[in-house]
Amino acid sequence: MGRGEHLGWALRKLDHVALSRKLDEGPPFLEEPASADDSAEVLNNYLVNACNSCMPRRGYGVRKRKAVHWWNNEIADLRLECIKNRHIYLRVVKRQGPDGSTAERIAFREARHALRTSIRGHTVPLLRKLRYLGLYLDSHLTFSGHFTTVSGKASQAALAIDGS
Known about the structure:
The protein has five helices and four strands, in the order H-H-H-H-E-E-E-E-H. By secondary structure, it is mainly α. The strands form two sheets. Strands 1-4 form a two-stranded antiparallel ribbon. A two-stranded antiparallel sheet has the order 2-3. A hairpin with a 2-residue loop joins strand 2 and strand 3 (135-137). Helix 1 runs antiparallel to helix 2 (36-54) and helix 3 runs antiparallel to helix 4. The chain is flat and about 75 Å long.
């Protein structure tokens, strides 16, 4: 899709009254010896004008947003490397079959392992006291420790509330 083309119309903002008003005007009349292509073009222009009169067009680039990575540049670079190696590996599997892709599979697995290791080792700095699920957490936790700690405290709190 080129830069000058739009992605369509925002259907959620459809004005039914304006659409019925525009459609009540009726389609344009063609002269008798009109070809099928001319008739199709006139009808298409009629429908485009009707849509333009009753709803706004969708914005450019709505579907072209880049993925935002919220950790750090090192993890973002490792993620891109992992994605690149996965594409290479899958391309080789598709062309040569699973037997011809040993080196690419190893490269992909190493890149994925490096990414996962980096994510696991990344710490989340917390405020002095952070209230989370009704509990106060007050340290620097890694992702794995965070979920282990919080799930244990949350289950204890749920049992205390339940009275079981």
